Amino acid sequence: MALVCARLCMTVQIDIGDMAGGKRAGLDLEELLATRLLVQGNSGSGKSHLLRRLLEQSAQWVQQAIIDPEGDFVTLADKYGHVVVDAVGTEKDLKMIAGRVRQHRVSVVLNLEGLDADRQMKAAATFLDGLFDADRDLWYPMLVVVDEAQLFAPAAAGEVTEEARRRSLGAMTDLMCRGRKRGLAGIIATQRLAKLAKNVAAEASNFLMGRTFLDIDMARAADLLGMERRQAESFRNLDRGHFIALGPAVSRRPIPVKIGPVETAGRGGGPKLMPLPEQPKEEAKDLIFTRSPDEIPVRPRIAEPVASTDDVLNQLTSAGDAAEAHIPQADNLFEHGEREEKIDQIITEILDEDEAAFQPIASLYQDFQVRCRIAKLTGGTPDLQTFREKLSVARAGVEKGEVDDSAWQQAELIAAELPEDMRGVYLLLAKAALAKAPCPGNIEIATAYGTRSPGRARWLLSHMEERGFLVCATDLRGNRIVTLTDLGWRTEPGDEAAA
């Protein structure tokens, strides 16, 4: 537990471990808030263990926010009450959450696990900007811990986009350079000092340097600690969990520190050796080459027989004979309702055939006319314009019975303002939004429009957005969210590349 000095001087000493001679290594929390901390060490040196020890010992004294790229610190939530903020939703949502974090003084872990490097940088920058932009009345003390800081403040451009690098580096610079006046105390940890932006590292006044092997990193560590270059070799010999500490919050001269135990554990942990399962060679082959019962077998696609020219001509002849017969007219509203149901049934049967969704409208309408004559549809065959409208909705797979009728009528009224071939796409999005379902992917949207082109689907959304029917946004995981402006409905995030 934290060692608390005399309350009259209002100093809180955090116990981080042991020094030489069995003395306890303390860290002045209030001095840390004013002077910031840099932790450096190669993978496996104990950086995460050090950060966890520091967070656990100070949890009762100061609000904390952890930028966690690997989801390693989410386990603090169970014991110390941290709220885990998963990077979902839009950047606007994340910035508003950061503002509430400062307002209500809640300790949080921003979990960036599962995002690629570009989106991790944007999410971290958005969250840090939200903390930084809080009103002056909310500038309470807060420890802001950034693990793997070289990812968010790189010394050089990498494979990420320039926009993401610029935003993330700017947010990290603000945290370390200007955060103190806003109550934000940056604690950054990195594997490689050489990969961390110098203007970010230079703002720290406290240092804990762990095991390092590369000459360039050892030289920078020695410079930061005020050690001679020949003493830099000592960083190679440090054991796991051992660090050299220096700074006004720790010691005025470099001292070795062994980090103490922690009460929680990360989800990853270190690799543990375990024996391989014992099994004969032949059984091992069966496990690899034999399909298990729960696997879905891949069956070869059997081509369906293609109708011959004689079959098509016979079908057209039969259709012509049926057309000459007397076509009954609807006598009442009930018969009219049956007619509409029959039309919908015929269109559904047409679209159930392979490749029907991608055939030209003229071919589909010809098939529709034939089927209507064969069925002796009451009131005759609908014209091409009516067929196009009904086909557009049917292609989208929209069934009105699955949604609220009054709400759906509003969607149909707005969709009527679009060209008939786009109405089905709008209703497809409306159905997803009303059902709180993920936004349909480009393939599904393209199929509803009658094409295989994902690019055409993107063009459709852009066209509707330009006309004010909807607004497209991307959440922090790269998933698309569509808001229907006139209705105020919004889909859940969905992968635009989903099949």
TrEMBL record:
It comes from the Bacteria. Residues 15-80 form the Helicase HerA central domain. Transmembrane segments: none annotated. InterPro entries: ATPase_Atu1862_pred, HerA-like, HerA_central, P-loop_NTPase. This is Putative ATPase. It comes from Roseibium alexandrii (strain DSM 17067 / NCIMB 14079 / DFL-11) (Labrenzia alexandrii).
